[in-house]
Structure formats: structure tokens, C-alpha cells
Write a structure and sequence with these properties.
about 375 residues, alpha+beta, Helix Hairpins, 5-stranded mixed β-sheet, two-stranded antiparallel ribbon, 9 helices, binds adenosine-5'-triphosphate, binds magnesium ion
């Protein structure tokens, strides 16, 4: 519709001006002079709107519309006619030249726009590149810090482990001096237990610094999970959280280092409980995934994790908790990966988090189901 408006305006102008010529008596030449000049209006407009071809075409149409008026109405006045024929020539010259100029101008504008667009694109690319570079630089700096920290932790852990062994050994010797039930026997028991706990923490650090070989045995997944539930149900009760271990559709056995696997599951379960508000729930379920893998899911109704945080949760020492070490998930990931498994965290802020552990099942010939 819009495309037809301009030709229609031009057509109306030419018809209108021609009518003025044809209907105005010849004894009013000054009016004819004005009308003659009025033809420049559609010609220049056509040239501006449609370029060289538009300008020329319009001037030709004007010439055709105007010529009969000169021939048949002004016929006989040679000097007057001559001037009018020259005017027709001028129409065509003005139409073509203006059209040509406006066309050139338009082409230049398009070229300039293209250049500006190209520049804008290059600028945006440059900005993206520089943002990427800044992110890489930040990562490098953090990696450097972490590797130094990791080395320090490894040295420290190593140095602590030996005296810990001696403390435990001497405590065991001292324990033999007291009968079970005596208060000092109990104190020494506590001492031994706490030393063991400290030793485990130290081992965790060492585990982070250099992964240790895992001791693989057939492991019934459900039994391991039941153990996790036993260990965490008091915590869940205190927090008023419903902790549910769903029975598996089929019993699943995997080849794993039971102790390490429990440690991994415990870290995930504790995180879920810590994130879930009272009256929420944590549901643990097992299923078979793609016949060769078992899938253990920990689903909580906590606040979820936003995308920015999600990208960092596996980094050692990353924590959002005031008393967290930020090692839980980093260790868990290492353990799962050392079992040739994968760890997946899916979360929708406001709708909870699901942590999925996929591990290869022991026997794939019968689908790993025993
Ligand atoms: N289920 C979850 N819901 C919401 N946020 C979670 C969940 N699990 C982990 N996170 C986030 O990931 C971060 C890292 O977890 P990670 O277990 O590595 O360390 P932590 O729990 O903070 O400390 P630690 O486990 O050493 O006591 C947490 O601080 C928390 O922000
Ligand atoms: Mg944790």
C-alpha cells in the first residue's frame, strides 16, 4: 500500500498541472508560465524518490502530457513554442541529473551504513573477546592461588599425619592400662576417636592434592544409601525435614570403594539437608540409566542454586556457608570420577536442587542387575 502512495502522488501532480495548462485560456500567459514551472515539482520528487530512472521516466511522462498542449493549443506562435520545447528538454535534463545525484547520495548512505554496521559488529566482537580474556585471566589467577593453597595443604596434611599416628598409637597403649567402664578408659577412647576423625580430615586434604587408588569391591547401592540415611536421619529430624529413601525398582550392585562412595553420598546428602528449610523434603532414589549405568538422585526442596553459583560449586574452597570448607563437592566429584562416574547438579532457583550420580554397574552382561 505504502509503495503505491508515491506513484499516486506523482500521477495526481502531473494530471493536475496538465489540467491547469489545458483549461486555462491562452490570454493568461503568466499563469501558463507558473504552471510550466510547477512540472518541476513531480520531476524532482520522482528523482529524489526513485533515482535516475524515476527522474527520467517522470520527465518523459511530463513531456508527453505537456507536448499536445504546445502543439495544439499554442500552435502558430513559433517563438513561444520554441521556448516551451526547450522547457521540455530542461525537464528531462533536470529529471536525469537530479535522479543521478540522489541515486549516488543514496548509494553512499547505504555504504556508510554498512561501514557503521561493520564497525559496530567489530566493536561488539572485540568487547566479547576482551570479556573472555578477562574471565580467563581471573580463572588463571584463581587456579594459581588454588594450586599454591593445595600444595600448602598437602605439605601440612602430610606433616600432621605422622604425629597423629604417634598420638593414636600411644593412646592405644595407655587404653590397655584401664578396664572398659573406667572413666579414664572412656577418655582415651574419645581421644582415639577424635584422632581418627582428625586423620580423616587430613586424608581428605591429601585426597584433594593427589587422588589415591580406590579399593574396589562389589557394593550394593541401596545398602550404602541406607547407611547414609541412618547417619543423617537425626540431623533431618532436628531440622524438621522429611528424609526419604525410595526402594529401588531393581537392586543394583556396583563395583566401588564403599568407604569413599559413602563419603561422596554423605557430602551430597548433607548439602541437601543444609539447603532445605523446615517442612521440606530430601528424596533419595535409585534407577537404572541406559542399562549399563545406575543413577542415584538426591532431590531437595531447598532454595536452589543460581547459574552463577552453579558454575563454581565444584571449585575447591568455594562455599556460601559461614562454616563451610567448600571441599565437600570438590571431593565428591573426584571420588565419583575415580569410579568412572559422573556428577550432575540441576537446579532451578526457588524450586530445589537435584544432584544425580551416575556410576557404571558391576555386570553389564545382564544389565548390571543382580
Ligand atoms: N543441595 C544444594 N542446594 C543449594 N546449594 C547447594 C547444594 N549443594 C551445594 N550447594 C552450594 O554449593 C556450595 C559448595 O558445596 P560444598 O559441599 O562443596 O561446600 P560446603 O557445603 O559449602 O562446605 P562443606 O561441604 O565443606 O562443609 C555450597 O556452599 C552451596 O552454596
Ligand atoms: Mg557440603
Amino acid at each position: 500500500m505504502k509503495r503505491l502512495i508515491r506513484p499516486f502522488i506523482l500521477f495526481l501532480c502531473i494530471i493536475g498541472i496538465s489540467m491547469l495548462h489545458y483549461l486555462t485560456p491562452l490570454h493568461l500567459p503568466y499563469l501558463h508560465d507558473i504552471f510550466q514551472r510547477l512540472y518541476y515539482l513531480p520531476i524532482i520528487l520522482a528523482a529524489l524518490w526513485y533515482g535516475f530512472r524515476g527522474g527520467l521516466l517522470c520527465s518523459i511522462v511530463v513531456s508527453i502530457a505537456y507536448a499536445p498542449h504546445i502543439l495544439f493549443q499554442w500552435g502558430g506562435h513559433l517563438t513561444v513554442e520554441m521556448e516551451k520545447y526547450l522547457e521540455i528538454l530542461l525537464y528531462n535534463i533536470v529529471g536525469s541529473v537530479t535522479g543521478l545525484l540522489s541515486q549516488r547520495e543514496r548509494e553512499r548512505t547505504i555504504e556508510l551504513q554498512k561501514t557503521a554496521q561493520g564497525l559496530e559488529e567489530s566493536y561488539q566482537k572485540l568487547q566479547i573477546q576482551s570479556e573472555k580474556m578477562m574471565a580467563v585471566e581471573e580463572k588463571l589467577r584463581r587456579a594459581e592461588k588454588l594450586s599454591t593453597l593445595g600444595e600448602m595443604a598437602a605439605v601440612l596434611a602430610h606433616e600432621i599425619r605422622n604425629p597423629l599416628g604417634s598420638i593414636r598409637g600411644t593412646a592405644e597403649i595407655l587404653r590397655d592400662d584401664y578396664k572398659p567402664g573406667e572413666p579414664k578408659h572412656e577418655f582415651i577412647e574419645i581421644q582415639i576417636k577424635e584422632t581418627e576423625r582428625l586423620n580423616r580430615v587430613v586424608e581428605d586434604f591429601l585426597h584433594m592434592a593427589r587422588p589415591q587408588p580406590v579399593d574396589m569391591h562389589p557394593c550394593p547401592v541401596q545398602e550404602e544409601l541406607e547407611m547414609i540415611v541412618t547417619l543423617t536421619k537425626n540431623d533431618a529430624r532436628e531440622r524438621k525435614i522429611k528424609l526419604v529413601l525410595q526402594p529401588p525398582t531393581v537392586p543394583v550392585i556396583i563395583k566401588a570403594d564403599g568407604e569413599k562412595l559413602r563419603q561422596a553420598f554423605l557430602n551430597i546428602a548433607i548439602n541437601a539437608l543444609q539447603a532445605t528449610p523446615p517442612d521440606g523434603s530430601v528424596i533419595i532414589s535409585t534407577s537404572v540409566y541406559k542399562t549399563a549405568l545406575c543413577e542415584i538422585r538426591f532431590r531437595d526442596t531447598g532454595p536452589g542454586i543460581d547459574t552463577e553459583t552453579l558454575a563454581k560449586i565444584f571449585e575447591p574452597f568455594y562455599t556460601t556457608k559461614p562454616d563451610g570448607t567448600g571441599l565437600g563437592l570438590a571431593i565428591t566429584k573426584k571420588i565419583i570420577e575415580s569410579h568412572n562416574g559422573t556428577l550432575l547438579v540441576e537446579s532451578e532457583p526457588g524450586h530445589g536442587t537435584t544432584v544425580t550420580v551416575r556410576l557404571p554397574m558391576q555386570d553389564t552382561t545382564n544389565g548390571g542387575i543382580s
